[in-house]
Amino acid sequence: MSALWAVADLVKATGGVANGEWCAWRVEIDSRKVQAGDVYVALHGERFDGHDFVADAFSRGAIAAIVERELPISGNQLVVADCYKALDDLAKYNRARSRAKVVGITGSVGKTTTKEMLKLALGVHGKTYATSGNYNNHIGTPLNLANLPLDAEFAVFEMGMNHAGEIAHLTKMVRPHIALISCVEAVHLEYFSSVEEIAKAKAEIFEGLEVGEQRAEVGGQGVGIAIINADQPYFSDVQNKITFGLSESADCRLLFYKPVIDGCEVSASLRGAISDVAIQPGSPRFARDDEDIKIDYKIAAMGRHVAVISLSVLAVVKALALDVKKSANELAKFAEVEGRGRVEKIKFSDVNILLINDSYNASPASMRAAFAKAGEVWQAQGEKGRKIAMLGDMLELGKDAATLHSCLAENLIQQGFDKVYTAGSLMKNLHDALPEKMRGGHVEKSADLLGIIKLQNDDVVLIKGSHGSKMYEVASKLRE
What we know:
Protein-Tyrosine Phosphatase, Chain A, UDP-N-acetylmuramoyl-L-alanine:D-glutamate ligase, 3 domains, 24% strand, nine-stranded mixed sheet, alpha/beta, 480 residues, six-stranded mixed sheet
């Protein structure tokens, strides 16, 4: 295995000035995460300056540092005019030399789950690289691109945003051959006037789609194709699309869903096969035959929304003309990411519970999906015990935040929750809207929740809230 970055390529990409001859295996921006052979990029912000940590990066094994001024310390240095621009330049340079077929993902919810599923589904067909962690913004995306292995056959990039224009910047850097929008929901309403405005911002991902001559360069299949949720009223004017969802019009449609204790069983219909056709101005870039494919598979995760996400994944596999059944079989290995709805068995001295840890983030749509999942988990364990919710504030919802919180009461009642414990000033609106018998208690700080909750044997406990509400700390302490 050869190094990813030779110093000559780094100089060519950034226009910087280097001392010495060396190569790097990886690009890193956090000195605490540096590994032997990394090149460390000294980014700076309002409250920190990465140049202060260059010595630390060298002590951890960095082969070199990208800096804006030469530092009086021992070690290879590449001096550039702007470290942020240098990181973008590395991303663009690395993307340009990659032969991978690239999938870009965005959406209001479900991005990370989609990415992780795609990593499995494409991994059985060739070396697959995917965005690490939650690095999906204006810093994380170029960092991930800069680390795209040269021998990767497939690459999956998650792109997030909370303002208009952010996805446009990222997608023009990623240049996906396939662009997938998981769904559009009422999130980030603090920065948008409507859900339609959010949909418009998500649609920016299509601005980076690779089409034209690039199609032949990557073998034809899967270039310039959009993957769209058929159950939502957006993107109807998008050309060259494959749709997924519950709707009868969906190209990849959910036919059957059954939750089981270790995941779910799914049947899906995939409409026709996709075959490559010559590109003519104004004509489709792919064609379908009339044969539908029915496929049965299992996912090692529960939730109807998870099953729908799997359809979008199979739509990508289909667009790339790969073996869909082979990919579907891999989903039996799928494990939800920490804090994204993973079901865990927790045992106390005399109490056993099932914890649904969905504490990474929250929106009204993801709350409703989590409530439904809790109901499915309860059913799968034989309808024993109670359904308990521990909920923290949903943030960035703008002027309607109070109403969006109180409206969750109806969903909780429909799902038959026994007790709901809430934390935060916004969640007080939900607490007040609940029937008296469902009110488990309310606190201002999430850290105080465990002091008021009373658990019983076989309880199904859902923990959820926006990242800023720190409900992930509640999940961690509950484990302890």
